[in-house]
């Protein structure tokens, strides 16, 4: 629909804004005696034809909106164009302007809310990125702990094997000491000195066996503690994976909000 607006004051300017944003309407002219009014300047920027005389309204115009509120202007429009065009009086124009004001108010409020959402989403996005970095560090620490626990288990196993070997050697030494005592007893007086050495060897064997037993007990305790650590590391890994999943979902939501 082709429209002409008579009056380019505050109300007329709002009407220009309103109808310029509607694809189905085209403003073919703006009429005002003051060619320096805000509405005229705005219309010129939009490339709309401006004039000071109602007689210059485009013949293709279908509707004329009287926005001055001047009764004589309205009468002149009716006399000249009443039979060929639809004339909208200032009261109806004021209703249109009221609607425009409400639309602008709603638009500004919506823009403000969108800006707040955007700010919030940017902050959320920043925090989510920090959480992702922290989660990645936790994953790295968890991996290191798991590797350390594995290496510790390997060390315990090797030490346990060495302890078993020491126990085996100790038993052999003990048997040798026992055999030496038997041979010393057979030798009588001549084997007395050798008997003393054999006895000391047996004592050393007993001490070594006891020490090896203590080491074995310590290794068993270490193994039990290491299993607990491995179990906790495994739980930490699961929690870390869950946190990583949640963090990525939250970051995706923040990205969607940011793109609104």
UniProtKB/TrEMBL annotation:
InterPro entries with a match to the protein in the record: Chemotax_Me-accpt_rcpt (IPR004090), DapB_N (IPR000846), MCPsignal_dom (IPR004089), NAD(P)-bd_dom_sf (IPR036291)
GO terms assigned for molecular function: 4-hydroxy-tetrahydrodipicolinate reductase; transmembrane signaling receptor activity
Keyword entries, A-Z: NADP, Oxidoreductase, Transducer
Keyword Ligase appears in the UniProt entry: no
UniProt keyword annotation of Coiled coil present: no
Residues of the Methyl-accepting transducer domain: 157-260
GO cellular component: membrane
Biological processes per GO annotation: chemotaxis; lysine biosynthetic process via diaminopimelate; signal transduction
Entry similarity comment: Belongs to the methyl-accepting chemotaxis (MCP) protein family.
Protein name according to UniProt: Methyl-accepting transducer domain-containing protein
Organism listed in the record: bioreactor metagenome
